[in-house]
Amino acid sequence: MKDNEMYTPDDIKGQTQTQPGRESLMDPEPIYDDTNIKGFERLKGKTAIITGGDSGIGRAVAVAFAKEGCNVSIVYNIADNDANITKASAEEYGGNVLLIKGNIKDSSFCNDVVERTINHFGGLDILINNAAEQHPQENIEDITDEQLDDTFRTNIFSMFYMTRSALKYLKEGCTIINTSSVTAYKGNASLIDYSSTKGAVTSFTRSLSANLAGRKIRVNQVAPGPIWTPLIVSTFDKAKVDSFGADTPLKRPGQPVELGEAYVFLASDSASYITGQTIHINGGHIVNG
Fold first, then answer.
1. Region labeled Disordered — which residues (predicted)?
2. In the predicted structure, residue 2 carries a pLDDT above the cut 70
């Protein structure tokens, strides 16, 4: 897919939503599928859990995995319509999809996600810890205890919960892929708590990879920059949405479809000697991390 097929900042002006954002209400909607890529059975017969799989990056990953022959459990919280669209899109490529609705802040729900996946598909090979929330605040004094707790529970506690449950079934050759962020490396003045959780995700990825190396379970992460997803239009004001992505070297926001292949690669046998690493997809920011 060529750069000139992607949206410029001018294309996305004039839009905000209340939380939680809905991909189906975005105009223009994010690009999550490159129909020119048909898949090469790189994940054939495998099963993946994707948190936050109903929209944004998670949707792109779910569709990309389905193209590669992977069974997918899509974990989501509220947006039923978005989840059903993702399910239908994955099924167009022959994917087998299980939708699981609930709140990953709850460790018991995370246990249930894994058990339902095992019962439905008979196994688990790939865990994608992707779900996140953010709440911009101009001053640290404006970050309430409740916001701090919610952000950390969704963005990093859930990764502990999901991984802990999944490891009962993951075996040699299985993979865990976490979604970090460019903010973990360069910070963000109005996303102090969010950036802190993404720093924790990065440390979690590196530490977990070392811990699981002996079991030959690989752990890596993708660190996105400004990507056009429902999280953006539901958390930033109009002025920030209007200029979203313009400060990158490529002068535009990224699209979810531009991340899908990175997750496929890290989940596939082609990445068999890669663990504890980060793929930066951020429009050209050099972060040296």
1. 1-29
2. no
Q: Are 31 and 230 in contact (CB under 8 A)?
A: no
Q: Could you report the per-residue pLDDT of 90-111, keeping only the tens digit for each?
A: 999 999 999 999 999 999 999 9
Q: Which residue range is the domain that position 275 belongs to?
A: 3-281
Q: HSE (CB half, 13 Å, CA atoms) of 206?
A: 9
| Candidates 161, 194, 263, 273; catalytic one | 194
Question: Considering the domain boundaries, does residue 289 fall inside one?
Answer: no
- φ/ψ of 183, rounded to 5, equals -65, -20
| Close Cβ partners of 96 (under 8 Å, ≥ 6 residues apart) | 71, 72, 121
Beta partners for 285? none
Active site residue 194: yes
Check whether 4 has a pLDDT greater than 60: no
Coarse DSSP helix, strand, coil percentages of the chain, rounded to the nearest 5 percent: 45, 15, 45
Domain of 83, CATH number, reads: 3.40.50.720
* Number of compact structural domains in the chain: 1
DSSP calls for 215-267: GT-EEEEEEE-SB-SHHHHTTS-HHHHHTTTTTSTTSS-B-THHHHHHHHHHH
Residue 159's H or E segment, with its range, is helix 158-166
Whether 287 is covered by a domain: the verdict is no
119 domain-assigned: yes
Across 63-89, average pLDDT? 97
